Amino acid sequence: MAEARRLDGAAIAAAIKEDVAGEVKALAAQGIRPGLAAVLVGHVPASEIYVRSKVRTCEELGLGSDLLTPPATVTTEEMLALVAELNGRDDVDGILIQLPLPPQVNAKRLLEAVAPEKDVDGFHPVNVGRLQTGQPALAPCTPAGLIEILKRNAIPIAGQNAVVVGRSDIVGKPAAILLLAENATVTICHSKTRDLPAVCRGADILVAAIGRPGYVTADMVKPGATVLDVGINRLTTLEEFDRFFHGNTRREELFRAKGSTLIGDVHPAAYAVSGAYTPVPGGVGPLTIAMLMANTVRAAKLRRGLL
Ligand code: NDP
Description:
CATH superfamily of the largest domain: NAD(P)-binding Rossmann-like Domain
Oligomer: single chain
Structural class: alpha/beta
Bound molecules: NADPH dihydro-nicotinamide-adenine-dinucleotide phosphate
Largest sheet: 6 strands, parallel
């Protein structure tokens, strides 16, 4: 059997960013500069890294950006007031509220307070509904990135059996809706699914969005299938490392140097069975920020009736 093709997410993300930079330039000629407002509450180290890289990417591509940093003690009412202000600002096309929020903040109320036309994360019920009904919408970034990976690698979607493992509102459900919109025959699996391996083996396109390291094993993958591994899990002990990467000397060197390594929801041995797969890291991950940029430009155009 032919060797599995590694789908390089970083290269696809770079191509998307180049497209976005081109669109930003074209909009600048019309006096429009799409802008993203990122709200980062308190000091969550992982969130700080994500948000800073989002802001940096805006700067690289010529988008406007504004970073708002309310303290960890902020109240729901104060956050609602901030969102209302951002909703009203003409230089803000996209509003991103970095999750998780502190426990005293009602995240659901807040996400619903974001104007749907500025909801670049695609979490607002109005965008969820629009996506479901095939109307112009802002789609969640990670699932939208999956479609880009397939399309930009000329992997057919229409008529294919797509199995999505995971039904979260952020990844699994919207990924399934987007695949359906591209005319795949879609099955959604979750923790109560009976005989998950058998269902997965029916997949031409298998999306793993579970949050469990190496959960999808080689016997669950149809030879030649496309495997999109959304999971991001960190392994920190040598015992865990050996369970998945025993004998991988290059990876072990990196693991020993850093004290940890990332693994997806798909077992490395399962990639080998596939026809094409996204690695972790470097597969789906890089697409998320690229799609956020694309969504901000899309929001700017939709809001001005340019799409
Ligand atoms: P959630 O925890 O919200 O959802 C996990 C889903 O997996 C649930 O629907 C759950 O089922 C299902 N599940 C859990 N265990 C099993 C099992 N044994 N068999 C079948 N299904 C199971 O996670 P997210 O969707 O937010 O994230 C999934 C993964 O993707 C995580 O590793 C996360 O880090 C990563 N991620 C990566 C992103 C990226 O940019 N690449 C962005 C967002 C997430 P049930 O509903 O029944 O509980």
